[in-house]
Specification:
The protein is an alpha+beta fold. The protein contains four helices and eight strands; from the N terminus they run H-E-H-H-H-E-E-E-E-E-E-E. Helix 1 (2-53) crosses helix 4 (84-91).
Length: 218
Amino acid sequence: MKIWVIIGVILVGIIIMVINIPPLIETVIGCNETTAVGGLRTLVTMESTWQQQDYDENGRHDYWTYDISCLYRIPPTEIKTTNGAVVWNAFYFVRADAAPAQDNVFGSGTIEIWAGKVATPTPLGGYLYKAFKKDENGNLYNQNLFKKIPATNDSKYGFIAVPAVYGISGTRIFIVNETKNVYATDPVSDEKKWIDQWPAKDPTTVFGPGGKKWQRVE
């Protein structure tokens, strides 16, 4: 008799857990998506600082567009220790960059080597980030040279944040560019969440990769 009581208690516990899982996932997704929007806005701030300070010392007040990780990896150590806030914010995006610069792409010793960063991108708040390759006109963002490699742009940049696992860590992808406006759409699946080109001058006028309209995030 006792064994059936124990089994009954276990079954009730399982049922309660199953009932509570959907609301729990929704809560996690909501928190992750809020964090992703905040993350993109942080990248906007970092780009503004980069443009003003010319951290890559290429003699131009331009934006870094090659990747995200170098927003932290290129500024010299003294900048990281004395100008903490903005540059150090980029530290948290290094591992979340889904396409970080290879260690020697700009020449040996040019950028900080980050062990393990290329092999295993690690989600930040359930999201991965990446720099867009092309603008709304199909032009490459990487225009100006850094160590003989196109890596910056005088007036444009674009970033995307996608859920690491669609439906579990998030259900929307988010994008931001030099206008500082954040847009979102539901990609419907993991297979369609990544895009490499900014969708349109006004993203709300076109459909996203999942067939749903882009919406501006306030």
